[in-house]
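Dear Dr. H.,

I hope your travels went smoothly. While you were away I took the liberty of generating a structure for the chain from your last submission, since the lab meeting agenda had it listed for discussion. I wanted you to have the full record in hand beforehand rather than looking at slides cold. The sequence, exactly as received, is reproduced here:
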Amino acid sequence: MWRSKRNVRITYTPLSGPSSDGGPQRIDDLVTYQSIGSDKVQSVRGIDTAVIGGGADGWAWHWRGKGWLMIASSRWEVLGYGTVTEGEEEQWAVTYFAKTLPTPAGLDIYSRSQQGLSDGLLGQIKEALKGIEDEGFQKLVDGLFEVPRDVE
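The corresponding predicted structure, in token form, is as follows:
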């Protein structure tokens, strides 16, 4: 999905309290990006609802698009996150998203830093992901790539 994109930014904003029906926590999800070779910033908005039960509480989410994307949905989950403070502080997270009609399953490694993660930390994360012994998952790890970004 991101191979032809650059400057991808994801902003999660907690929505106040549980959903109106007393259900699970929800967050507003805003993704902005540019196509490679274009200065136009595009966006995708959705609402993420925490999946409750099955040990997934707070780690798995159900995304539903807003506006014309209301018909689109997907499930994603946080596989890990952390902060490393050797040298400069680096904050990271790894997510897995399930296959949908328009997109294959995938892995994302996020960084809060505009410069991205250091090569050393990125290597450590990839090595840890390689420890998951599932052939399909390993294909996702092998297919990881860096999304280009303009560093200011």
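Two observations you may find useful: The first strand starts at residue 5 and ends at 18. The chain has a mean pLDDT of 88.

With kind regards,
E. W.
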